[in-house]
Write a structure and sequence with these properties.
Layout lengths: L4 H50 L6 H15 L19 E6 L5 E4 L5 H5 L3 E5 L21 E7 L2 E10 L4 E8 H37 L1 H12 L18 H48 L3 H28 L12 E4 H18 L3 E6 L6 E4 L1 H18 L5 E8 L3 E8 L28 H11 L3 E6 L5 E8 L3
Parallel strand pairs: 8-10
Antiparallel strand pairs: 1-2, 1-6, 3-4, 4-5, 5-6, 7-9, 10-11, 11-13, 12-13
Helix pairs in contact: 1-4, 6-7, 6-8, 7-9, 8-9, 9-10
Length: 486
């Protein structure tokens, strides 16, 4: 099977062209055969009348013998001096004429005429002038038992086309004929010669088709070369000038595919960065708890520390699951499915999990919320846990030793506000928008710069708002506002 597009096109076009040439050859042969039948039948008729005019009523046996002797000498391959005759033709033996009297005796005939067979000739069929001969079953008749006109006959295995002409004034019958293979050869030669230019032109057409198809497919070849020359890591859009209309959808689809692959790789990188960032805090908590268990002298304190360590390991496990769920936050991933939930228990659980880290640094972490207020809002549970951990752990890291971290929930009529404040150095007003950018980090506790970026993305997916303000504690106040109706 041909795999080359150019080869397929060339094979198809040459195949179609060859089929057309074959049809043209058949048509040319039939047309030439018909025209030759017309011309040669007309010549037979003309020749018969000419011979009839020569063989008038005055022709007797003596005159016929003299004329036959002259015809025999003229047909001899050498002249009277024994020299080869100057003029001859290969078709001369395939043309014949004869003059018969009323009794069927030959008076005069050409040297090429098979006289014995002409005398007892069996007529196969009668036809009209210009028609191709055909046998007619049961129509055989002797020469003098048939009527004048065009007939077909078989003599010595060769088919002849004959014309019989009766000459009532003299009582003579004139017979002229030619062998059928003469007509076939002429038709074949004419058809072949008419097809010679086409046959010679086929290789030239094939060459031109090959060059034209190659020139037409040049944009596709250029696209292929550029793709081959690219590095495997190069996912930039493919830029080609003057693309044909047929290739523009291909290039557009390829560029969309490259964009999707780039987005998937970027999302994977971002997820790995998120994972590295989010696992840092739980690992630090585990280390503190492990140190507490090792240093505890009292068995009861050791058991409490180990129990807390076990809970932290469970939390780290849950965090890994949450990080997998965090992949849903990326563009192109599945949308979150918020459901109404009470934020107060979530905040309490998060503060309890991070308390060991705060106590290790000597920080005071508190929660302020009206127990009787409605703190419900439509949230995704996993995403909200990630948001709380980022905000509270970020405040713990930035608060100075023996400092304070305060978490507040404020229930409004249409929304719930979450405030996470610390007593750290804060962030200058001109930089507060930039801290939500990925990988942007300032201050002595430089991290990966992803914590607040993750918070901003989660808030965006919940159609909420997040902003940074100055805290009454002296540091930063991170405020998240969630509408009760999503």
């Amino acid at each position: 099977m041909i795999r080359s597009l150019r080869g397929r096109i060339l094979l198809l076009l040459i195949g179609v062209l060859s089929a057309l040439l074959a049809l043209m050859a058949v048509w040319s042969y039939r047309d030439a055969q018909h025209e030759i039948e017309e011309i040669l039948d007309a010549q037979l008729l003309q020749s018969a009348r000419f011979v009839a005019g020569l063989a008038g009523r005055e022709m007797n046996l003596d005159t016929a013998r003299i004329l036959q002797s002259a015809l025999d000498r003229a047909a001899s391959p050498v002249d009277a001096q024994g020299q080869p005759r100057r003029f001859s033709h290969e078709y001369e033996g395939k043309l014949a004429f004869a003059v018969f009297d009323a009794k069927g005796e030959a008076l005069v005939h050409s040297a090429s005429a098979p006289l014995a067979h002409f005398r007892d000739l069996k007529i196969l069929g009668r036809r009209g002038p210009g028609e191709h001969g055909r046998e007619l079953a049961g129509a055989a008749a002797t020469l003098l038992g048939t009527s004048a006109g065009f007939h077909d006959a078989v003599i010595e295995g060769s088919r002849w086309n004959i014309f019989l002409l009766d000459n009532p004034p003299s009582g003579h019958w004139i017979l002229v004929g030619d062998r059928d293979d003469v007509r076939g050869e002429l038709a074949t030669n004419i058809a072949f010669r008419s097809m010679v230019p086409e046959l010679i032109g086929v290789p030239l057409v094939a060459l031109l088709v090959w060059l034209v198809v190659g020139w037409t497919l040049r944009p596709l070849a250029q696209m292929t070369q550029r793709l081959k020359a690219r590095d495997a890591t190069d996912l930039a859009p493919l830029v080609l000038e003057r693309l044909p209309d047929e290739l523009e959808p291909v290039a557009a689809s390829l560029n969309r595919l490259l964009a999707n692959v780039t987005e998937l790789l970027d999302r994977e990188k971002r997820f790995l960065s998120y994972a590295a960032h989010e696992l840092r805090t739980p690992l630090a908590v585990l280390r503190v708890q492990a140190d507490n268990a090792v240093r505890a002298a009292d068995p009861a304190d050791r058991e409490a520390a180990l129990a807390q360590l076990d809970r932290s390991v469970s939390r780290a496990t849950r965090l890994v699951e949450q990080l997998l769920a965090l992949a849903r936050l990326e563009p192109g991933a599945a949308d979150l499915k918020p459901v109404p939930a009470d934020l107060l228990p979530m905040v309490r659980d998060e503060i309890a999990e991070l308390s060991p880290l705060a106590l290790d640094r000597g920080l005071e972490i508190t929660l302020q919320a009206d127990e009787s207020a409605d703190h419900r809002a439509p949230v995704d549970g996993h995403a909200m846990q990630v948001l709380l951990q980022n905000l509270i752990s970020n405040a713990v890291r930035h608060a100075p030793p023996a400092g304070r971290v305060q978490v507040r929930l404020v229930a409004g009529a249409d929304s719930v506000e979450l405030h996470v404040e610390d007593s750290g150095p804060g962030v200058p007003a001109e930089q507060r928008e930039r801290v939500f950018e990925r990988f942007y980090s300032e201050g002595p506790s430089r991290g990966a710069g992803l914590g607040l970026a993750i918070v901003a993305r989660i808030v965006e997916l919940h159609r909420g708002r997040v902003e940074l303000r100055e805290s009454a504690l002296g540091g930063l106040d991170a405020v998240v506002t969630l509408e009760r109706v999503p």
